[in-house]
């Protein structure tokens, strides 16, 4: 891989250990995947923030990085952490709170903004054609497919490395030829709600692994929030980084069909056959303003009767305060900085979670050891309003 004089100096350690390590990570990745050079990025988004998912091992690496006082070279943000600072924080022991605070502190020391959201594109929407480095898989798919900015699916170390260097190797979907459709997915059923969009994503992600699908048969007026669920589902069960949903040339491409029963089976597979949910969770990926409003409209002047979380970013929450007040008046919790998957659900006594997110339903049994049931928002809210027996 070609390096400029300055990049070579970073590689050789002239700017210190942290930058050198970052450069070595990027060069190693570039060599592995056939990159020819490094290209500048506009921003980075780093995952591996929750102490629950990160554990102790990477903390020493973060400490060593922060000790040499590097600064990120591009605007960089963080994924959600283990709890919010108002509600869930009070439910966990001090030891755990300290560890989480240490992780956030180490990231902020090097200039990373603790946005603590998986939808950083609501804070600052990347422009068409921008190159980025994102380690949040749902954001990767949304960014490439809906917003038209370009990012590979980074891991936490490579996103941090890209943030420190301000560049990424030019492989994968940073190259136009790798963004072209490689397979047609004909959707032969109408999708009734956001949960079915997510289930379609999980179903197709399993089938295709890392292809570039072009979907046919989605409604012409498909909403951004529905595409967000589709992308989150695709990224959960497969390695897809980009999909197409607008008419594209498809001559000569292989075709697969997804039927009503495929989507129904995916919904069923994402739902455990278990007792009544003790948590209703909306906001995976973090809610948009429109999604917070939709929840508020469903609970206005009603009373939720079981634990009900709506997760979003601080940025969206501030914009949505009139809806937030409605949800909170009904007894729900609008949580920032975290989500049901990256917090300690089991320790909170949750056994069954009802969610409208296929991604959350996909990960909950393995990452939280909590059974999940997938249903559209209106059914989630209906259940939240019912007395728990
Ligand atoms: Fe975001 Fe948590 Fe889902 S980080 S994408 S809400 S699993």
């Amino acid at each position: 891989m070609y390096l400029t004089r300055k990049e070579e100096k970073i590689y050789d350690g002239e700017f210190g250990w942290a930058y050198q390590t970052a450069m070595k990570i990027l060069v190693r990745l570039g060599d592995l995947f056939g990159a020819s050079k490094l290209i500048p990025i506009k921003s980075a988004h780093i995952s591996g923030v929750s102490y629950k998912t990160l554990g102790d091992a990477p903390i020493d690496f973060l400490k060593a990085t922060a000790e040499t006082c590097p600064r990120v070279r591009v605007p960089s943000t963080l994924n959600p952490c283990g709890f919010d600072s108002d509600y869930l924080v009070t439910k966990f022991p001090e030891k755990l709170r300290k560890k989480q605070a240490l992780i956030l502190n180490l990231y902020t020391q090097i200039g990373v903004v603790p946005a603590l959201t998986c939808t950083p594109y609501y804070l600052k929407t990347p422009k068409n054609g921008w190159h980025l480095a994102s380690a949040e898989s749902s954001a990767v798919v949304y960014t490439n497919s809906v917003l038209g900015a370009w990012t590979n699916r980074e891991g936490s170390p490579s996103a941090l490395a890209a943030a420190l260097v301000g560049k990424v190797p030019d492989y994968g979907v940073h190259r136009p030829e790798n963004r072209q459709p490689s397979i047609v997915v004909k959707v032969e059923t109408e999708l009734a709600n956001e949960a079915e969009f997510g289930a379609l994503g999980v179903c197709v992600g399993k089938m295709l692994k890392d292809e570039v699908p072009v979907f046919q048969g989605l409604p012409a007026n498909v909403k951004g929030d529905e595409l967000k669920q589709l992308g989150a589902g695709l990224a959960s069960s497969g390695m897809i980084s980009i999909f197409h949903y607008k008419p594209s040339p498809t001559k000569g491409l292989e075709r697969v069909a997804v039927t009503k029963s495929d989507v129904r089976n995916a919904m069923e597979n994402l739902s455990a056959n278990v007792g009544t949910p003790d948590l209703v969770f909306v906001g995976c990926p973090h809610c948009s303003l429109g999604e917070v409003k939709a929840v508020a409209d469903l609970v206005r002047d009603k009373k939720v009767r079981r634990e009900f979380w709506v997760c979003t970013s601080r940025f969206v929450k501030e914009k949505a305060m009139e809806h937030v007040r409605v949800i909170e008046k009904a007894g729900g919790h609008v949580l920032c900085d975290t989500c049901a998957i990256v917090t300690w659900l089991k320790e909170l006594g949750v056994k069954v979670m009802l969610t409208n997110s296929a991604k959350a339903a996909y990960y909950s049994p393995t990452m939280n050891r909590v059974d999940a049931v997938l249903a559209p928002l209106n059914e989630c809210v209906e259940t939240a309003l019912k007395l728990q027996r």
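Residues 180-268 form one domain. The pocket of FE3-S4 cluster is lined by residues 79-80, 118, 138, 232, 284-286, 311, 339, 341-342, 359-360 (CB under 6 Å).
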